[in-house]
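Please check this:
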Amino acid sequence: MTDPRTLLVFAPTRRAASETFIRANLRGLPFRVHAYFGDER
């Protein structure tokens, strides 16, 4: 059975100073992550 835990993240822009921090910390999480940044397509 697959692990159903998933985190959905909406961030305003990838040009924000916090973008690198957000991406680095999302990679270390033990479950599936879907991250969407406002200026990405």
Summary: The mean pLDDT is 81. Helices lie at 19-27. The beta strands are 6-11, 32-37. The first helix runs from residue 19 to 27.
